[in-house]
Amino acid sequence: MANTREPMLQPIPILSLRPTQMTVGMIEVKEKRKRLREYWKEHKSHKKQDEFLGRHMIPVVLGPGKLHYVVDHHHLARALHEEDVGDILVTVIADLTMVEKDAFWGVLDNHKWVYPYDAKGERHHFKDIPKTVADLKDDPYRSLAGELRRVGGFAKDTTPFSEFLWADFLRRKIPRKNVEADFEKSIEKALAFAKGKDAVYLPGWCGAASDD
């Protein structure tokens, strides 16, 4: 396996990117879309927009059939698609084109490059993962976890899919109907849970240290 981290300067159609997860937080996607529109409005030239895309390349694994499998920034890819951006630049972090199709997902799984869990936190077969970023489903708890990190509930961490781990923690603490009905109130509750000892095992936990 070649670990390349090489940018591909040839634009890739966003809808040709293959997801490695089943969900995104649509509130987070909407926030990214808002920031994109603000940037496009401020920087109307194609050069500036190209510079933005050059600074926000999507990390991918090159798989069988030379398909590009997204391993991070699914939310950005979805936001760009919804803002009618057709193509994106990618960074190839690994070349797995030599791996047989029936072994490919297992290799991704071993490297923690795939997260086949649905909006209920239930694991699915790899074949159930959507084929395009446009087909990713909404998980409100992923939005809750993303906002929780932004307001200081936990620290950014290199653990793969760390925000999904927090999403599953919050899924067990706050009813979904509450998250959907009052997102701001749910953030307040999430902050309280995030500082508690129940969350000590989670990546980026920054609650008070125990005196025991």
TrEMBL record:
Gene3D superfamilies per record: Conserved hypothetical protein from pyrococcus furiosus pfu- 392566-001, ParB domain (3.90.1530.10), DNA helicase RuvA subunit, C-terminal domain (1.10.8.10)
UniProt-listed CDD domains: ParB_N_Srx_like
Domain of life per record: Bacteria
UniProt xrefs under SUPFAM superfamilies: ParB/Sulfiredoxin (SSF110849)
InterPro entries xref list: ParB/Sulfiredoxin_sf, ParBc_2, UCP029669
Entry-linked Pfam families: ParBc_2 (PF08857)
Protein name: Chromosome partitioning protein ParB
Organism, scientific name: Bradyrhizobium erythrophlei
